[in-house]
Design a protein that fits this description.
3-beta-hydroxysteroid 3-dehydrogenase (NADP+) activity, about 325 residues, oxidoreductase, estradiol 17-beta-dehydrogenase [NAD(P)+] activity, binds NADPH dihydro-nicotinamide-adenine-dinucleotide phosphate, about 45% helix, binds the ligand CC(C)=CCC[C@@H](C)[C@H]1CC[C@H]2C3=C(CC[C@]12C)[C@@]1(C)CCC(=O)[C@@H](C)[C@@H]1CC3, HSD17B7/Erg27, 3-keto-steroid reductase/17-beta-hydroxysteroid dehydrogenase 7, alpha/beta
Length: about 325
């Protein structure tokens, strides 16, 4: 029986590189590209079929920033698949990022220079907005849309014929101080990305607590810093290319400058086929690339308490109820 692997945000960057690498690792899987834009998804499928002509690839349209679209897409997934073995929750945004050059220069001459490059801590702010669903866009796209998707396809994820895995593309930019339980959508503040990724870490821990018994397991990954469309929103592509030699130098300091989507997908690929009993719910799996360009995976304990994860889970369940009432009064 073919393993069914669904990937959100599969048409570019880390998601697309993951598709390539999964097909190279196991050409017997059925891959489902869950994308918001059908044309971009078709282009991705064409590219994947060129390198893997016998690949079995489906497409489902899902905009994780829209509840209506998530409900429609989830229905299609339920109808199409009896079971889903892997769900990569990878789609994500960082809208209108701004660099603090002052913090960058100060950081360069401080003892925190390595962690600054590894996490981007204190270097970036974003401007968020409210979606048609009345939610903060970064929160809805990076977290809540994905959460609703999981809840909607629960019957095909929790099945008797073996465990299923949820794999979240989180970030080392996830930071406790950017997140607040009383403002979990990050209405007040300019670090919505960091807050959403921290919320993702909390959610993954809670999902394990509530779903492991039913055969569903959740892990979080940091792909490292990768030059994708997300990074081209921070600085234009030609500037990144211009400072490439500096970036390779930075790679000597920190193994987290994975730079290419191929390298960034390392930990996501590593989790595919892992025995679920060997996974640690409280750990984040990082894609790393050494100065010589070798890829490997490193794990680190996350900076969170299970109690906060429980409290956040309760809040997200309450929000789900509220949203369902609005969608289906
Ligand atoms: N690049 C980096 O350094 C890092 C990235 N990450 C995370 O990796 C993930 C992938 O990003 P990356 O590959 O870098 O960037 P890309 O911008 O290349 O990929 C993001 C993907 O998400 C999709 N997407 C965005 N919004 C939605 C939506 N509302 N509904 C459905 N799909 C959507 C995009 O689709 P479309 O093409 O239609 O916009 C695209 O396919 C993100 O979660 C990001 O936060 C984490 C750490 C570092
Ligand atoms: C490399 C040089 C000389 C300058 C670039 C400085 C910053 C723009 C850059 C340094 C560390 C980067 C970084 C991210 C964005 C760009 C930086 C701040 C992220 C926050 C991007 C998104 C993520 O999820 C993180 C893992 C990245 C961490 C590092």
């Amino acid at each position: 029986m073919r393993k069914v692997v669904v990937i959100t945000g599969a048409n570019s960057g880390i998601g697309l590189a993951l598709c390539e690498r999964l097909l190279s690792k196991d050409d017997q899987i059925h891959l489902c590209l869950a994308c918001r834009n059908l044309q971009r998804a078709e282009n991705a499928r064409t590219a994947l079929m060129t390198s893997h002509p016998s690949a079995d690839i489906g497409i489902v349209q899902i905009d994780v920033g829209s509840i209506k679209s998530v409900l429609r897409g989830a229905k299609e997934l339920r109808e199409r698949y009896k079971r889903i073995d892997y769900l990569y929750l990878n789609a994500g945004i960082m809208p209108n990022p701004r660099i603090s050059f002052k913090a960058l220069i100060t950081g360069l001459f401080s003892s925190k220079v390595i962690s600054m490059f590894a996490t981007g801590e204190g270097l970036l702010t974003q401007e968020d907005k409210v979606t048609e669903d009345g939610l903060q866009e970064v929160f809805e796209t990076n977290i809540f849309g994905h959460f609703m998707l999981i809840r909607e396809i629960e019957p095909v994820l929790c099945h008797a014929d073996g465990p299923s895995q949820l794999i979240w593309t989180s970030s080392s930019n996830a930071r406790r101080s950017a997140f607040s339980l009383t403002d979990y959508q990050h209405v007040n503040g300019q670090e919505s990305y960091s807050s959403s990724k921290y919320a993702m870490d909390l959610l993954s821990v809670a999902l394990n607590k509530h779903y492991n018994q039913q055969g569903m397991f959740s892990s979080v990954v940091c792909p490292g810093f990768v030059l994708t469309n997300l990074a081209y929103g921070i600085l234009p592509q030609f500037i990144w290319m211009f400072i490439m030699p500096i970036m390779w130098l930075v790679r000597l300091l920190t193994n987290t400058f994975t730079l290419s989507p191929y390298n960034g997908a390392e930990a996501l690929l590593w989790l595919f086929g892992r025995k679920v009993e060997s996974l640690d719910s409280l750990v984040k799996y990082h894609s790393c690339t050494s100065g010589l360009g070798n890829n490997y995976v490193q794990s680190s304990k996350m900076d969170l308490e299970e109690e906060s994860s429980d409290l956040f889970y309760q809040k997200i369940l309450d929000l789900e109820k509220e949203v369902r009432k609005k969608t289906n009064p």
